[in-house]
């Protein structure tokens, strides 16, 4: 089984390929800050299916989330921080290579990236869709490397 480094590389590779495709097609051109955030989402999503194990990937994933939670709390976005915290606990409900290693989880787990900004902050689907797709792309890379498809 690939380790966290392979999953990070796979997430970066899949994200880079997807980004190259949308840039080449001219359908999306993110600014530099958005691009970095999209890449972070893809990399964290590439690690997500294995956060139910004692691994360096879990340490990296939850370490990054700790920073994100802190930033959200400083900004006063407690409701968003609480929902993200709830979602981050979901892998504990199951066994390794269980539901987190399914195609439907790849589609459903990132849905809060779309739903929360639309409900809490009245964002449009078009404004949040790139972040959802970055997450699905990273998640997909994990499943491909683990041969879950």
SSE string, helices as H and strands as E: HHHHHHH
Query: What is the multimeric organization of the chains shown?
Result: single chain
Largest sheet: none
Helix content: over 70%
What's the alpha carbon Rg, rounded to whole Å? 15 Å
- Tally of helical segments: 7
Total strands: the figure is 0
Task: Tell the overall outline.
Answer: globular
Strand content: under 5%
Q: In terms of structural class, how would the helical and strand content be classed?
A: mainly alpha
pLDDT averaged over residues: 91
Which parts are unreliable, with pLDDT below 50 for 5 consecutive residues or more? none
Report the span from N to C terminus: 14 Å
Task: Please provide a written account of the structure.
With 149 residues, the protein is mainly α. It has helices at residues 4-25, 32-47, 56-74, 78-89, 103-108, 111-121, 125-145. The radius of gyration is 15 Å and the shape is globular. The model has no long low-confidence stretch (mean pLDDT 91). Helix 1 (4-25) crosses helix 2 (32-47) and helix 1 (4-25) crosses helix 7 (125-145). The protein contains seven helices and no strands.
Task: Give the helices and strands, then pairings.
Blueprint lengths: L3 H22 L6 H16 L8 H19 L3 H12 L13 H6 L2 H11 L3 H21 L4
Helix pairs in contact: 1-2, 1-7, 2-7, 3-4, 6-7
Structure in a nutshell:
With 149 residues, this protein is mainly α.
List keywords for this structure.
149 residues, 72% helix, single chain, globular, mainly alpha
């Amino acid at each position: 089984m690939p380790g966290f480094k392979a999953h990070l590389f796979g997430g970066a590779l899949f994200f880079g390929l997807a980004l190259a495709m949308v840039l080449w097609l001219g359908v999306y051109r993110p600014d530099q800050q958005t691009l970095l955030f999209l890449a972070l989402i893809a990399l964290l999503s590439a690690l997500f299916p294995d956060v139910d194990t004692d691994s360096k990937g879990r340490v990296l994933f939850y370490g990054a989330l700790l920073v994100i939670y802190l930033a959200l709390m400083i900004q006063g976005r407690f409701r968003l921080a609480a929902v993200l915290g709830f979602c981050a606990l979901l892998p504990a409900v199951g066994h390794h290579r269980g539901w987190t290693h399914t195609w439907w989880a790849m589609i459903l787990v990132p849905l809060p990236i779309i739903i929360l900004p639309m409900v809490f902050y009245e964002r449009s689907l078009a404004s949040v869709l790139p972040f959802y797709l970055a997450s699905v792309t990273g998640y997909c890379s994990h499943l491909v490397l683990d041969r879950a498809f």
